[in-house]
Amino acid sequence: MTSHIERLVQQLDGDAGASYDARAELIWLGSAAIPAIIDGLPSLGGFGQLTAIEVFEEVGDARCGPALIGLLDSDNPTVREWAAIALAGLEIDDAIEHLRRAYHACLERATPPDWTEPDGIRWALTELGARSPVVPSLTNRLRTDTPADSSGWPSAHYTATINDLADHAQLILYSQFWRVDAGRTYCVSGPSLDWQLDWRAPWEHLVEEARAWSLLEATEAPVGEDIFVAPTWIDRTDLYPER
Q1: What's the angle, vertex CA 124, arms to CA 121 and CA 128, rounded to 5?
Q2: Residue at 61 is within a domain
Q3: Is the N or the C terminus of the chain less surrounded, counting Cβ atoms within 10 Å?
Q4: Last residue within a domain, chosen from 74, 96, 127
Q5: Residue 177 to residues 16, 93, 109, 174, 226, Cα–Cα distance (Å)
Q6: 112 and 180 belong to one structural domain
């Protein structure tokens, strides 16, 4: 059985079909497969490691923690991002300091804060209780639970939410829209504005520029009683964290 599991692990790096089959069988084997996946992880390429992370998440075995922490030093930004998200999902509290270092490394590489890797690491730190997003009082009051049991802001309050966040020096990175129908959520295409910030600018300038772009976006955003928006924002401490 051990040699069979080892072959499955190497198969994670195969073509899409073979990798999917190996992934499914390893998930079915569950915790029994975890040691072999951990041992084989360094020999896998980026695609295989990403698939292995999916297996770790599905199996939910905390023994994956050290291996996932090791992947935070990967040369592949997507591997680093997925490893961070998996660590939070598995509630690996020992990963907090490693995640903080990974986030500092993102900033040192000048990775824009609105890219998926730093976004994923911030989410992981928040889930593990090591980061507390700043939520101004009006923004908090306007937030509501949708019929699909997800939290969001009604599209009618989008402009008010933008201004409240910016008034409290919160920098809006982007917003996502969805529609609720019969208790289910569906993604809705938002405005196709391609705006980028100059991250070398002072914080106050960044906040106001993001406000201006977001307000412009609000004029083209989908509206309706069943449309909700989820803005993503950061605080000054996310761009200039203390060491």
Answers
A1: 140
A2: yes
A3: C
A4: 127
A5: 31, 31, 30, 10, 11
A6: no
C-alpha span between 204 and 157 (Å, rounded): 23
Task: Provide the CATH number for the domain around residue 122.
Answer: 1.25.10.10
pLDDT band at 1; cut points 50, 70, 90: low
Kindly list the strands in the beta sheet with 144-145, ordered across the sheet, starting from the edge strand earlier in the chain. 144-145, 151-154, 227-234, 171-181, 184-188
237: enclosing H helix or E strand: helix 236-239
Contacts of 148 (CB under 8 A, 6+ apart): 180, 183, 184, 185
pLDDT at 147: 61
9: domain range?
2-127
Pair of tokens at residue 176 = 């996502």
Residues 116 and 144 grouped into a single domain: no
Q: Are residues 115 and 10 in the same domain?
A: yes
Residue ranges of alpha helices (H) inside 109-232 are 116-127, 137-142, 158-167, 203-220
Q: Give kind and range of the element (H or E) at residue 241.
A: none
Residues 49 and 158 in one domain: no
- What global pTM score does this model have? 0.91
Q: Are residues 105 and 164 in the same domain?
A: no
The two structure tokens encoding residue 94: 């020992």
Query: What six digits make up the tokens of 209?
Result: 């520029």
Query: Tokens in use for 49?
Result: 């490691």
User: What would the pLDDT profile of 201-215 be if each residue is shown by its tens digit?
Assistant: 999 999 999 999 999
For residue 16, how many C-alpha atoms fall within 13 Å in the half-sphere facing its CB?
Answer: 0
CA distance 105 to 83: 15
Collapsed DSSP state (helix, strand, coil) of residue 177: strand
